[in-house]
Design brief:
Shape of chain A: elongated
CATH architecture of chain A: Orthogonal Bundle
Protein name (chains A, B): DNA-binding transcriptional regulator, MerR family
Oligomer: homodimer
GO molecular function (chains A, B): DNA binding; DNA-binding transcription factor activity
CATH topology of chain A: Multidrug-efflux Transporter Regulator, Chain: A, Domain 2
Helix content of chain A: 55-70%
Keywords (chains A, B): Coiled coil, DNA-binding, Transcription, Transcription regulation
Organism (chains A, B): Microbispora rosea
DNA sequence: CTTGACCTTGTCACCGGCGTCAAGCTTTAC
DNA sequence: GTAAAGCTTGACGCCGGTGACAAGGTCAAG
């Protein structure tokens, strides 16, 4: 299939697909006229990329998953490199949550300091 | 005082101060040679900006606080506009925390799905 | 007079993931 | 035959908050 069909099937722009190719995440054969040609395995790969991105992974994060799929694994997340990324992302998210909680209380403290009573009226902690 | 001294006193780069001026957050008189001139009130304003930024406010978020200080209030956070920003930021942070928690469980679920047993060994929830 | 510290404006670069246009080719449908 | 749709590469723009550099003007000390 050509780029437009792949884009439609996965629900992504052709621009994004060309970008993924430029970053080396997907590949394409070229037909005689220069058009990119894809097959079913590319649908799988791009779907995996989008799933990962939908939960906050970057394209680089997705790379090991793509490699894992290409090497024949039925799941992109079962290779050691992918597992390492999973663990790293979980740790990252945990850190971000901790940072946000800390920031929240700092903001609430500044708020309470600058405007005593403002928070209480809303029942904030 | 000139820009270098203000920068040193608040602990911010001169580049940042010029940027704040360009964005209309601080102002400066110019001495005969074209140098920017500041006074104590500017120290207060820039300090307020940095405090807000340190807890994740953008420059635009800081604008009402600066206006509040300029209008003579002893605290930048006591004006209605500032209070609105505080509330908005708290709501924003709360939303981000919720999103992160949701993402965390999605990642954990994908992980568990792709690599059964990987998470359990770490005692993750 | 010169050095060096300080000031000026202006510009490019960064990071991620594209959107969007430009200018031109191919293919398909009528 | 032609218009529309689809494809190609290339390049700029965005967002925020600077860092870093260029190419100069200014001022005090030696």
């Amino acid at each position: 299939m050509r780029i437009g069909e792949l884009a439609r099937r996965v629900g992504v722009s052709t621009r994004a697909l060309r970008y993924y190719e430029q970053r080396g995440l997907i590949r394409s054969r070229r037909s005689a006229n220069g058009y990119r040609e894809y097959d079913e395995s590319d649908v799988r790969i791009v779907t995996e990329i989008r799933e990962l991105m939908s939960v906050g992974f970057t394209l680089e994060d997705a790379r090991p998953f793509v490699d894992c799929l290409r090497s024949g694994h039925p799941s992109g997340g079962s290779c050691p490199e992918s597992v390492a990324v999973y663990r790293r992302k979980l740790a990252e998210i945990d850190r971000e949550i901790r940072d946000l909680l800390a920031r929240r209380s700092e903001v609430a403290a500044q708020f309470a300091d600058a405007c005593p009573g403002c928070l209480l009226r809303r029942g904030e902690s």
